[in-house]
Specification:
Shape of chain B: globular
CATH superfamily of chain B: MetI-like
Structural class of chain B: mainly alpha
Oligomer: heterodimer
Number of helices of chain A: 13
Strand content of chain B: under 5%
CATH topology of the largest domain in chain A: D-Maltodextrin-Binding Protein, domain 2
CATH topology of chain B: MetI-like fold
Strand content of chain A: 15-25%
Number of strands of chain A: 13
CATH superfamily of the largest domain in chain A: Periplasmic binding protein-like II
CATH architecture of chain B: Orthogonal Bundle
Structural class of chain A: alpha/beta
Shape of chain A: globular
Largest sheet of chain A: 11 strands, mixed
Order of helices and strands of chain B: HHHEHHHHHHHHEHEEHHHHHHHHHHH
Largest interface: A-B, 77 and 72 residues
CATH architecture of the largest domain in chain A: 3-Layer(aba) Sandwich
Number of strands of chain B: 4
Distance between the termini of chain B: 34 Å
Number of domains of chain A: 2
Chain lengths: 352, 558
């Protein structure tokens, strides 16, 4: 018992030490208001915060360093959700100067917490539907159900088309999705069902569940372990993935999979200047750089998303096999921001 | 003259005390700065909503049935996994460390491989076996608690085999020989002589397995297919997805209480059971395998090696040799030649090795200090209690969520002189925090088991404390060092939790590279990810085998 007490006492001591420490907080950075035009900060280093799927060719990154003279450090501390939460958590001492990878499911949280400085690049897309306060859209993609065409041909079954089809008995035990509580495409699909079904979204999920839905933890487990159309050769022919995934299952001039374009949620990824940045000039330059023709052209092959700048050339296979949906299901960022956490909690209570 | 001697003696005693205090202070400072302070700061944020202190997190969390289910499942899964690891690991420890047969060293290396595999790899290796059309699909285990348990045992089996095995190898064989001569049956000898003698190592291993199991995130998520939650998965969800710090803090405190309780229980049991043993500094005699006697251990170990460890690993290897359905070494060829996200596998390998070396150096240096201090035998009860507290404190990092520590780093190590958030050195430091407990637990049972008469005899024969230390304790310490280094290195190689929060896309470690490859569509990415996983597995096996060969040149027997 004595040991326990000591351990607990040590813990309490650590906590109280911390409490003392936080009393000497530095005054918060005054960047919030002061860093509009006029006096932008600058330094010779630039820290770029990205989500964990960020990738660009080395030549491009080097080119940016050479042109601007900055020494650039990239850190990638997690998916879009973890990224925004870290920004919020470190508001008083920012993790970097510029963030790339905040998406439309988390943009409102970043803005509500005031971790972004006003800057929207003029080089960006004029498309109003992509706009978000203090953020510049960089790329976009559709999260959609994908089907293994070969499997459906072999089983002489029509490929489902709509969300409602997925609850029909002939498609029993065929669908695998990743959880909205632990994966970013999972959250996108949850929002898609809310956009499509409104108040009845939980009933829709119960119907999916009754029809043999399998929920796994992440995209990798869904796509590579359970899905029949990818290299893992799993048992299920319907999987939650991206509208671009069929471009990666091309065999003999045709793709063996296809995206169901009536089930898509459009995910937009943004970049923004972090409030309190040490190098706001560099942060803005980096956002402009992300919109430059070379980077936009490199996005498909490196990050599997569509560039936002119109007329950017796409890989040939994308033109043929990876179309965007022309009627993605949409939910406003404000609505997502206001309800995201509750939706996830309700979903978790009902389904998992 | 006499007085002078006395004074000198006292001075030297004081000097020793100061030395021991310093030896304790250095690792303690490390633990406070890189573990306790960050974790406590994050937890404190949950109790302080900016203006006042609040306990709303506790109320919200403990009114929810979900919390109690998570607590229940955590306790159940960690306890069951510990029991299974012990039941399966003890025969393995005997076979791999007390007997001699062909292929023993390979088998020893093989059992360690799972320990370093990132969960995403384990998910692929197990998942495709267990899914409905998989080789073991008929068992219907996909997404069940049994699948979670199987993966926990897969990971932790080697902890028991190695911790107990190295200890067993050095047990004086005369103990059992005497009992056998007196007519005891082999089972009786095992139960009444061997088992009690092994108790400290068994308890040490059990505590480690319990902590690893209770704090595993990936295994529960991937193999439980999100249907089961533990305290750890709830903390991740609340922190990384919802940023609900009050609730996460309440759960972190709960986790701390459970871990503390577990450590206290194991510490008490260990105290009761540790007796001074005659340990040989060198490996005791190893007998050739005799099937008539050892068939039970052989059967159990064969089953574990083939089914639990062999099948998933073979599955991984088999898949890595396929590209678009064809059998080919292409994935490995491309892995060696192709650039991946501006990095190459060689670069990742180098980063992994450098990071692991740095983490091992930190963890082993500090671990040796802790083990030496904690193995002192003060006469006063208070001092003894303080030492056992010290030892327990160094195990806490295993029981506290990586996400709590990782997010804690972000809000504490943010100003000079400790502005380390974007510094590369933070990665090996974070890994050393996780490896340190393993090093301590590996070294301590050996030091504790030194017969006090050995120490007294040396002292009586006129050896100065420094000489006693050099002649008696150091040789024992060295014998355990190979294992400690191996474990620290393996922990660092495979660490993904804390590393992922600090990841640098330009210099990924091998697990980070694998994770990112598995996150991309296309046969090529998948093939590369599998090949890189096999490389990581090989690396783990090879380094563990090498660590085992780390033997001091001078032969120490006395």
């Amino acid at each position: 018992m004595r040991t326990t007490l000591k351990v607990l006492a040590a813990g309490a001591l650590a906590v109280s030490l911390v409490a003392c420490g936080s009393g000497t907080d530095e005054p918060g950075p005054d960047a919030g208001g002061g860093a509009t035009d006029g006096a932008l900060t600058e330094s010779d280093t630039l820290t770029v915060l990205t989500h964990s799927s960020f990738a660009l060719p080395d030549e491009l990154k080097k080119k940016f360093e050479e042109e601007t003279g900055y020494t650039v450090t990239y850190t990638a501390p997690g998916d879009a959700g973890a990224l925004v939460n870290q920004l919020v958590l470190t508001k008083d001492s920012p993790l970097g100067d510029v963030v790339y990878g905040v998406d439309n499911t988390f943009a409102s949280r970043a803005n509500d917490a005031g971790v972004l400085s006003p800057y929207e690049s003029e080089a960006g897309s004029p498309d109003e539907s992509l706009a978000a306060a203090n953020l510049t859209p960089i790329n976009l993609g559709d999260v959609c159900i994908n089907a293994d065409k070969e499997w459906f041909a072999e089983h002489d079954l029509e490929i489902p088309a709509t969300l409602d089809d997925l609850t029909k008995p002939e498609y029993r035990d065929l669908l695998v999705v990743s959880s909205p509580a632990s994966s970013s495409p999972g959250l996108s699909f949850l929002i898609a069902t809310i956009g499509a079904k409104g108040e009845g979204w939980l009933d829709y999920w119960r119907a999916l569940d009754d029809n043999g839905l399998l929920v796994v933890s992440g995209w990798t487990e869904a796509y590579y372990t359970e899905f029949s159309g990818a290299d893992g050769e799993g048992p299920r022919p319907l999987v939650l993935s991206y509208s671009t995934s069929p471009a990666f299952t091309v065999q003999d001039g045709g793709s063996t999979t296809e995206a169901l374009l009536d089930t898509c949620f459009r995910q937009v990824e943004y970049a923004g200047v972090i409030t309190g940045a040490q190098n706001e000039v560099g942060a803005r330059a980096f956002i402009d750089f992300l919109l430059s023709p070379e980077v936009q052209a490199a996005i498909p092959e490196n990050m599997y998303m569509y560039p936002v700048v119109a007329d950017t050339p796409l890989p040939e296979e994308w033109e043929r096999f990876a179309p965007l949906s022309d009627h993605p299901i949409s939910v406003s960022q404000e609505e997502i921001g206001a309800n995201r956490d509750q939706w996830i909690k309700d979903w978790t209570a009902a389904i998992s | 003259m006499d007085q002078g001697l006395d004074g000198g003696d006292q001075l030297s005693r004081l000097g020793w005390r100061a030395g021991w205090a310093l030896a304790a202070a250095i690792p303690a400072a490390f633990l406070v700065v890189f573990f306790a302070w960050p974790a406590a700061t994050l937890v404190a944020r949950g109790f302080h909503d900016g203006t006042t202190w609040t306990l709303e997190g506790f109320t919200a969390v403990f009114e929810s049935r979900r919390t109690w289910r998570a607590v229940g499942f955590t306790l159940w899964s960690a306890t069951t996994s510990t029991l299974f690891c012990l039941a399966l690991g003890l025969p393995g420890a005997y076979l791999l460390f007390r007997t001699r047969f062909r292929g023993r060293d390979t088998l020893r290396a093989l059992v360690t491989i799972p320990f370093v595999l990132p969960t995403v790899v384990v998910g692929v290796a197990f998942g495709s076996l267990l899914r409905t059309d998989g080789l073991l699909g008929w068992l219907g285990l996909s997404g069940t608690p049994v699948a979670i348990l199987a993966a926990m045992v897969f990971f932790n089996y080697s902890v028991v085999v190695r911790t107990v095995g190295t200890f067993w190898a050095r047990l004086d064989p005369r103990l059992t020989q005497a009992a056998a001569t007196l007519g005891a049956s082999p089972w009786r000898v095992f139960r009444s002589v061997t088992l009690p003698a092994l108790a400290p190592a068994i308890l040490s291993a059990a505590a480690l397995v319990f902590l690893f199991s209770a704090s595993s995130y990936g295994i529960v998520m991937v193999l439980g297919q999100t249907r089961y939650s533990t305290i750890e998965t709830e903390i991740w969800f609340l922190t990384t997805q919802l940023l609900d710090l009050p609730s996460a803090a309440a759960l972190s405190i709960t986790q701390l209480v459970i871990v503390t309780l577990a450590l206290w229980l194991s510490g008490r049991a260990q105290h009761r059971m540790t007796r001074a043993l005659r340990l040989q500094p060198d490996v005791a005699e190893v007998t050739p395998l005799r099937m008539s006697m050892d068939w039970g251990s052989v059967l159990v170990t064969l089953l574990v090696a083939v089914v639990l460890l062999g099948l998933p690993l073979a599955n991984l290897l088999w898949r890595s040799l396929h590209l678009s359905g064809r059998l080919t070494p292409d994935n490995f060829v491309r892995l060696g030649t192709q650039e991946i996200f501006g990095a190459t596998v060689w670069g990742a390998l180098r980063t992994s090795l450098q990071t692991a070396l740095a983490a091992t150096a930190i963890a082993v240096t500090l671990g040796v200090l802790v083990a030496l201090v904690a193995s002192r035998r003060p006469r006063r009860g208070g001092a003894r209690a303080a030492l056992s507290t010290l030892e327990s404190l160094f195990l806490l990092p295993l029981g506290v969520s990586a996400v709590t520590v990782g997010f804690g780093y972000l809000i504490t190590l943010n100003r000079p002189p400790l502005d380390l958030r974007s510094s590369l050195i933070l990665i090996p430091i974070a890994q050393a925090v996780v490896a340190l407990p393993l090093v301590v637990r590996t070294l301590l049972p050996t030091l504790r088991a030194i017969d006090p008469r050995q120490l007294e005899a040396a002292a009586t024969l006129g050896s100065a404390p420094l000489q006693v230390f050099r002649r008696v304790e150091l040789p024992h310490l060295r014998r355990g060092l190979g294992l400690a280094i191996g474990f620290a290195f393996a922990t660092s190689l495979g660490e993904f939790g804390a590393t992922s929060f600090l990841a640098r896309p330009d210099n990924p470690t091998l697990p980070v590279l694998i994770f990112r490859l598995f996150g991309r569509p296309g046969a090529e990415s998948y093939g590369l990810a599998l090949a890189a996983s096999v490389v990581l597995a090989l690396l783990a096996g090879v380094t563990m085998a090498l660590a085992e060969r780390l033997r001091p040149k001078e032969v120490t027997s006395w």
